[in-house]
Design goal:
By secondary structure, this protein is an alpha+beta fold. The protein is 34% helix and 23% strand.
Length: 362
């Protein structure tokens, strides 16, 4: 007899940074707000209110473009101390219900409420009460998705934003999947979706019967994972206090870097930050990755993996510099550099899961 379905909630705060700003400053309420840097210094949008989104303003967009789309946009510098404080209150509310809370960021988390401290059998009732308490205690709204697994709960939480609640009961899973476009698959971004649509894969369920070899050629190692998700099958458990899987540091520059020596000096700083963070967390890393975004916003990554893990600072610097030499940085202006450590091990790390936790860059 198969095990009973789990009751999973994905809770996602609505326009979190911007909502905190609007909550704390009544003058911002009802206005298009973007949290981020100055358009004059090539800042980017970290978050946008729903009023700003009506004009097409989205996170990660250059602030200069956001202002062109919405001339009345109110720009607010981020205050992460306040965002963290709000997040801590939200997470504390979630942990009043269950110890199985898996934060994904400051503004979203998974909960497994199959068994919970409230003794409530209906996950929809739990989700509704969590939303009520969050609003009452923080003045912020959240959207929630309820489903038998993490994949479906994540989709459901975004179904009726803001302040939404969507429930996908086990008996509704198949009909729900039939409605979804291929972009709904976890790991399928705009680039991958374009490849799949060119092959005739328009809907999520089209992946089920698509030729395995062709799918492998289109999406690489994600193929088996996407096949499984297309059936609504996601075995990942809600894991509280998730182990570190990667540590990274990156910087966007107000003026493009054009001299390779200057880029290598910046890469060295970033590599040392990562090595120091590994030291503090008592972790080792096998793989060093660098990220380079050119002035035209195109992005490349390069990585190098050792047989034995390390956190040697000088080694990180040298490997990062060598990876930079494998890019076009010497011939193209660069606006962003990043260094990351992956394949972590040590007292605080854990083996990598059977399913991918990090998505390919698009």
């Amino acid at each position: 007899m198969p095990p009973a379905p789990r009751r999973i909630i994905h809770l996602d705060m609505d326009a979190f940074y911007a909502s905190v700003e609007q909550r704390d400053d009544p003058r911002l309420r009802g206005k298009p707000v973007a949290v981020g840097g100055s358009p004059q210094s090539r800042g980017v949008v970290a978050a946008s209110s729903y009023e700003a989104r009506e004009f097409g303003v989205r996170s990660a967009m250059p602030m200069s473009r956001a202002v062109r789309l919405c001339p009345e946009l109110v720009i607010v510098r981020p205050d992460f101390a306040r965002y963290r404080a709000a997040s801590q209150k939200v997470m504390a509310i979630l942990r009043e219900c269950t110890q199985l809370v898996e934060p994904l960021s400051l503004d979203e988390a998974y909960l497994d409420v199959t068994e919970n401290f409230w003794g409530e059998r209906l996950a929809s009732v739990v989700a509704r009460e969590l939303k009520r308490r969050i609003l009452a205690e923080t003045g912020l709204t959240a959207s929630a998705g309820v489903a038998p697994n993490k994949f479906l709960a994540k989709i459901a939480s975004g179904w009726r934003k803001p302040d939404g609640l969507t429930v996908i009961a086990p008996g509704r899973v198949e009909s729900f999947l039939q409605e979804l476009p291929v972009e709904a698959l976890w790991g399928v971004g705009p680039v991958t979706a374009k490849k799949l649509r060119a092959l005739g894969v328009e809907r999520l369920v089209d992946v089920r019967d698509f030729d395995a070899a062709s799918l492998q050629e289109a999406v690489g190692s994600l193929a088996a994972w996407l096949k499984r998700l297309s059936h609504g099958d996601d075995p990942r458990q809600v894991t509280p206090d998730r182990p570190w899987k990667s540590i990274s540091s990156e910087t966007t520059y107000s003026i493009d870097l054009e001299a390779l020596d200057e880029m290598k000096a910046e890469i060295a700083k970033l590599a040392l930050r990562v090595a120091t963070s590994l030291e503090k967390k008592n972790l080792l890393a096998r793989t060093v990755t660098i990220k380079v975004r050119y002035s035209d916003f195109s992005l490349v990554t390069r990585s190098h993996t050792l047989e034995r893990p390390t956190r040697d600072p000088q080694g990180f610097v040298e490997r990062s510099a060598a990876l930079l030499d494998r890019t076009d940085a010497a011939r193209r202006p660069v606006r962003l550099l990043g260094v990351g450590a992956h394949g972590l091990s040590g007292k605080d790390a854990a083996p990598q899961p059977a399913f991918p936790e990090q998505l390919p860059l698009e």
